[in-house]
Design goal:
By secondary structure, the protein is mainly α. It has one domain (2-129). Helices cover 86% and strands 0% of the residues. It has helices at 2-31, 36-41, 45-68, 72-96, 100-106, 109-129. The model has no long low-confidence stretch (mean pLDDT 94).
Length: 132
């Protein structure tokens, strides 16, 4: 009976984590002015680097939330905080790097690597700051 409950809890939390990842990706793709998926399909490596950094930056605190959560509501609250932090990270990148969207569209790797590093760094700090 214990194994059945553990598997059920795992499936619930894992599914919730994937659901939040999907929600974040949809919101991120909607909010950003450049069309990442179209650019990636066209072999634009910087677009892939930025999107990968943003997804990792969100996944890090989400993983931490799943690990420390005292229930589904905790996961949802921490996921929301991580989502807001990552959207703020994107806004910061856009302010820091003038014409960021054009730079990604032109295939500038330097801008992409810095943006990915900022997203991942914000995610790491966000994850580390989660405590009770």
């Amino acid at each position: 009976m214990q194994y059945t409950q553990a598997l059920s809890d795992f499936a619930l939390y894992f599914g919730m984590g994937l659901g939040f990842m999907l929600l974040y990706m949809v919101l991120y793709l909607y909010v950003t002015p450049h069309r990442e998926i179209t650019l990636i399909r066209g072999d634009n490596l910087p677009a892939a680097v930025v999107l990968a950094g943003a997804l990792l930056g969100f996944a890090l605190p989400l993983a931490g939330a799943l690990r420390i959560a005292n229930g589904l509501l905790d996961v949802a609250a921490w996921a929301f905080i991580a989502l807001v932090a990552q959207l703020a990270a994107y806004a910061g990148v856009a302010l820091l790097l003038k014409n960021f969207t054009k730079r990604i569209n032109r295939g500038e790797m330097a801008a992409a690597v810095l943006a990915a590093a900022i997203h991942i760094s914000v995610g790491l700090v966000n994850s580390a700051a989660m405590n009770y």
